[in-house]
Amino acid sequence: VPFYEKYITIADKEKNKLELKEAYRYLGLHNLIYATVKDEVKGDEYFMKVKEIDPNDPTVIRYYEQKAALDAPTPAKPTPAIGAPKAPAKPAAPAAKPKGKAK
Q1: First-last CA distance in the chain
Q2: At residue 56, does pLDDT exceed 90?
Q3: pTM of the prediction?
Q4: Choosing a second label site near 26 at 20 to 30 A (CA), which of 38, 50, 70, 94?
Q5: What is the spatial distance between Cα 61 and Cα 55, in angstroms, rounded to a whole number?
Q6: How many CA atoms lie within 13 A of 57 on its CB side?
């Protein structure tokens, strides 16, 4: 991590796009998955930089698809209207027969 962080500060942004993409992608994954303390904001920033360099990068595409799926609201269960009939109750189980001989 420290090597990639240092590299992105000194690399030529135009000449080293491929290497910068690798560094940003690694740092993004590190912050989202491997770091002891996860930092989603930082990971997202690194993936935005990868997307600027290569919008068709498969890792970035998969990241944003999964993020969109997680951020999508889940459909709520409809609540019954007031005064609506309730579902019928289940019938009671038959009484248990006593075991053993009857005297």
Answers
A1: 84
A2: yes
A3: 0.67
A4: 70
A5: 8
A6: 22
